[in-house]
Fold:
Amino acid sequence: MSSMKRILLVMFCLAILLVGCSTQPKEYGVFLGIDSEEMHRLDKYDIVVIEPSAFSAEQIDKLHAEGKTVYGYINVGAIEEFRPYYDRFQDLFLGIYEDWPDERWIDVSSPLWQNFVIDGLGKDYAAMGLDGFFLDNTDVYYHFPEDDVFQGLCTIMKGLKSYGLPLIINGGDPFVSRCMEEDTALSLFDGINQETVFTSIDFTNQTYGQQSEADTEYFQEYLSKAKEYGLSVYLLEYRADSTLSKQIDAYCAKNGFIWYNADGVELR
Structure:
């Protein structure tokens, strides 16, 4: 082999190594399963979603100093057993959350719950310096499709909006779709995060796969409407392989969406 060929080969190998070890920031990551001792997991991300109760205001300041936008998770439509306030709201439980046996759907039409989310969690988390709220389980309206449930969620959105922070709705397409139909969506929240548009989760067997074509088409149509309406759009996928990741990259680039490829439902 000539000297020139050897030089070119070495340069090619170095280029591969540099790409593989890239420290370029990634746009978006959802890390609800970590605490402040694992903050290093957030290093490569520009926009992160965290569990606020696992961090301090000082640690959020540190993330800001690193140039990150930090969203705090609030479970508005259900409640988990590990929450210190779980026992306080047992009278408002509506049923067990499928695939999450330690979680209960909650009656969002109750002023007691509304006030707690808005004046308790919302106030405390806003005071920590978060850049926005990531609101989960408005899907309670899908499971309990009654007008008082819908209106209860709207009341919570309005209350949290009073802190002047952007709100991202995780899932909850029936709720979001009705808000768009009634032309109230942009007055209540700013964006949506949709899980499993391209990937799927088998909770029984604890495996991950590719979403059905019909469901992917449904979600793409829904996200197209959300984009047209003026909402920002995020995707949360699970263990997409390299081939599927390229497909998701192309889809998001075409539509101006951003996405995160999680390693599992633990979101670590």
About this structure: The longest strand covers residues 69-75. The first helix runs from residue 3 to 20. DSSP finds nine helices and 13 strands in the chain.
